[in-house]
Write a structure and sequence with these properties.
Elements lengths: L1 E4 L12 E3 L2 H8 L5 E3 L2 H34 L1 E6 L6 E6 L1 H10 L9 E2 L4 E3 L1 E8 L5 E10 L1
Parallel strand pairs: 4-9
Antiparallel strand pairs: 1-2, 1-3, 5-7, 6-8, 8-9
Amino acid sequence: MKLILRQDFEQLGKVGDLVDVKDGYARNYLIPRNIAYQATPSSLRILEEEKKQGVKRLEKERVGAEKTAQDLAKLSITIKMKVGEEDKLFGSVTSQMIAEAVLEKGLTLDKRHIELDDSIKSLGIYDVKVKLQGGVVGVIKVWVVRE
């Protein structure tokens, strides 16, 4: 039986994929759980329309993410930390601290999108990568200074 997936399903594929499965598996598991629906000519037309709309939506999100990346490139944040001997920080700068500092500058950013390669444990200037929607990567300049 040919089905169209309504949601990502690890064993079969991603949303909108056309898959061929056994009749019993489709009728007893996939269709009742709204994981997939039967591939009829009308549902195939609906799928094509949904794909077109999805492409437009993804393009719109990517353009928004590129604008956010440009705003982040202009942004420079300062984080004040307590330091000990030889300019070693007590603790480290976390992605939560960076997200809060960016929020104070007027941009909202999820801490899970901030990529810290290594922990920031000393004073200095760091370029921190931020993964945005659509595969766009932004960079924030972070200054870690004495409190």
